[in-house]
Amino acid sequence: MQSNKEITFKEFVNNYLTPGMVEKLVVHNKTNVEVHLKPSVQQTRGKVTFKIGSVDVFEDALNAAQEELQINKKDYLDVTYMQSTDFSSLEVIVDILFIGALLMFIMWEASRLSGKGRGGPGGFFGVGKSTAKIFQPNSNVVVKFSDVAGCEEAKLEIMEFVNFLKNKDQYLKLGAKIPKGAMLTGPPGTGKTLLAKATAGEASVPFISVSGSEFLEMFVGVGPARVRDMFKEARENAPCILFIDEIDAVGKKRGGSRVMGNTEQENTLNQFLVELDGFSSQSGVVVLAATNRIDVLDPALLRAGRFDRQIYIPLPDIKGRANIFKVHLGILKTDLDKDQVAKKLAALTPGFSGADIANVCNESALIAARDLNEAVHASHFEQAIERVVGGLEKKTQVLQPQEKKTVAYHEAGHAIAGWFLEHGDPLLKVSIIPRGKGLGYAQYLPKENYLMTQEQLIDRMCTLLGGRVSEKIFFGKITSGAQDDLQKVTKMAYAQVTVLGMSDKIGQLGYRQQEGSFQKAYGEETAQIIDEEVRNLVAKCYDRTMDLLTEKKDLIDKVAKVLLEKEKIDKSDLEAVLGKRPFAEKSTYEEFVEGTGSMDEDITLPKGLENWNTPRETKFSSNSDRLFS
Length: 629
Ligand code: ADP
Ligand code: ZN
Hints:
The protein is an alpha/beta fold and about 625 residues long. It has helices at about 10-15, 40-45, 55-70, 90-115, 150-165, 170, 190-205, 220-235, 250, 260-280, 320-330, 340-350, 355-370, 380-390, 400-420, 455-475, 485-500, 525-550, 555-565, 570-580, 590-595, 625-629, and strands at about 5, 20-30, 30-35, 45-50, 80, 135, 180-185, 205-210, 240-245, 285-290, 310, 425-430, 440-445, 570. The strands form three sheets. A six-stranded mixed beta sheet has the order 6-8-9-10-7-11, with helices on both faces. It has a five-stranded mixed beta sheet with strand order 1-4-3-2-5. β8 (about 205-210), α8 (about 220-235) and β9 (about 240-245) form a beta-alpha-beta unit. α13 (about 355-370) packs across α14 (about 380-390), α16 packs across α18 (about 525-550) and α17 (about 485-500) crosses α18 (about 525-550). The protein binds adenosine-5'-diphosphate and zinc ion (ZN). Zinc ion binds near residues 414, 467 and 485. The site of adenosine-5'-diphosphate has 17 residues, from α7, α11 and α13.
């Protein structure tokens, strides 16, 4: 074999591009150019190759070179392309071995899935097998609907799905098409999974449960294979409920960013859609899926005939929280009246999810046990709430005296601003003991409004700015301690300008930016106006807070001193310094729920859902007979 000489493109142009030397050029794999010399030349020069970075650049450069050498256009070199492998290169051999192994693996998988089916240890590590867990009816699924508190509407919807399985004629005879599935959406920890589990407990049909992330594997083809296998399992167990948690893991919008590795998820999603469409509404399988990221889901998933229904499970309101507390207080040992405790805690925990509440109850028992108490006391619940809101107290973290002072005046600034602004949130507690999430900590009772006026938003922003303003007033310099406050303020200001139509210059426009998309719905000029408006709004709030706190400087000073002395103060301490707050405020459960009916859950079932989890005797007493006779 002749020697192989690798040269550069420049050498090629200088030494070989004269007419009569080269027969043609062959580009291998878009990177290696093999120079086919005329036979007579090859005798003396051997084999010549050179590397290129990009085919387009190469062609342009080659043409330019030939033009410069004034070669006749019709004598320009022929360039052909080949997708081939050069076996003399070690890397390529490794590649080929790898691809071969992969092919063998895929063939093995395919034959296993199509041929032998499931059972046994299941193929090559069993990776293509469904990872879903099946709960047979009457097995030890202990969750019941009574364990899920405060989402009556969702329960009703789900009961209806079970009824679809048990009594489908009730619907079919009226000409209704039975929905194939429902999507449970809502913030994390609101009980979506719990509700699905309870459905299994109550429905007395098999319940197949899987998490979307279980379809994502590093091997090509595993995801779709698992999807196929899971649906097969569901069909074999019909009538049954198939529950897919975290469906966003597989159900993300397709064709977004074309990054490597996306395609496997897309294949999995495609397979999922194909299987879903393959169900007839009579197949006896109801698919429930859960996500807290409905905005990232591929619209194809939510089209009619797929997840027809969306069941939104919001964060619980005060009544819901009281009911959830009741459920979780159930097993705790306490001398307190549990109903009263549930109501009281519900009033103290706006914004908490069901999971947070479960956490508080468990934490309180742990805190009580730490000091060898016989029962959980009120103070343990309070500590548990503080801990869930603010993280662990770091009693050992050493703050320099000056730092401690700064934190005290910062927190006092928040407290005073909130106290004297009409729409400020009532304060529960301020502390300057460092916690997991910050140096100081203030707990407020935000009103649970469903509508916010601009005045309320602005008062809230001013309260947030109170910390920094107080630092400025007392120390003349500012610290990094306001970072979190400023982020919240900025977010609120942007929301008012771009989403809520509360800026005069932008007007009544609501630009909702799609999450994950970089495209703005407005032009450069508008973007500038938005930035300007946001800055003006925050500046206005800052000035207002500065005026207020300058006026109340003495009071801040007093509060800060109490805070430095006690480290932790609550509303009664503030009242001792400031007198009663000049605005009426609600703080107890009874005040919050006044005029909204009883606390008890309201599940009166419509007639068609009575005995929803047992098949009814259906007589085909069709009215149509009478119509036509
Ligand atoms: P999600 O699936 O919505 O993220 P989970 O169902 O996993 O939330 O909830 C986590 C835990 O929080 C549950 O195991 C339960 O202890 C508690 N929880 C949440 N919502 C409720 C509720 N409505 N009633 C009682 N407990 C709840
Ligand atoms: Zn602050």
